[in-house]
Amino acid sequence: MFHLPKLAATALVAATLMVSTASAQTVLRSSDTHPDGYPTVEAVKYFGEKLSELTDGRYAVEVFHSAQLGEEKDTIEQTQFGVIDLNRISIGAFGTQVPAATVTQLPYIFRSADHFHHVLDGPIGDEILAAFDAVDLKALAYYDGGARSFYNSGKPINSPADLEGMKLRVMGSDIFVDMVKALGGNATPMPYGEVYSGIQTGVIDGAENNYPSYDTAGHAEVAKYYSLDEHLMVPEVLVMSKMVWDGLTAEDQAAVMEAAKASVGKERELWAAQELVSKAKVEAGGSIINEVDKAPFIAAMGPVYDKYVTDPALKDLVARIQATE
Q: Where are the alpha helices (DSSP H) in the chain?
């Protein structure tokens, strides 16, 4: 009989154990269009750490940041088909696919960050998350995406009249397109990764987003005027492929939900800090930031609400959100 030397035999056993351990761990792939270090990216990493703890290392999460797996529209489809396990996406990227979620994209539906949190942390938030089941996604939690405002390369925006004829990038959402149209601008749906060059080359005049995106994507370098109309507070949402979710045991599903909920507090903490850092950075870089009287902007949104809130159930949802303190 052939005998391995003792050292070699020990090494073989160790290698076998390593393979067994590695094969016992399921690595979930998660996509994010934002760069490494961005609050949502770090929150999903934290989610992965908590999930690993809760499952004794049986699950781990690998975050593919900076749109490594594609822009949001592409990664949504890949997540629905189970090619990507997890995805951090803006609810705005779903357009009107999820009617209940559409309501959260309405301009000025949220009065403040506190109102935003009170709505989404309660039964209304749970109701909207559950609606994603219908599009083959299991929505796990909301992340903060801050207030979105207009920025451009030409002038401060103080009133809707200042937007007249201005070409502005928006996400691929009909609501966003109609919002800009109602304010007199020309909406241009465009992937997030193309905004910098679009402004730089004059294809568009500007865009709309929150302070951290305006900063970390470099948009402040090419669009110096940032006007705080704060027209949208669109939630970010962490979703899992429904196919992947349905393949988990009830115990593992509970662990995923617990880890997701834990990551919410982490993301909010990181978001608040990042907003302050980004605001200071763009100001130091020469951005001109102006306050805006929101009243005429809000008044212009009537046609948008009339178009998208026609179903009685959605009207009720809007009313309940507006009634939330």
A: 6-24, 39-54, 72-80, 99-102, 113-120, 123-130, 174-182, 195-200, 211-216, 219-222, 242-246, 250-284, 295-299, 302-308, 312-323
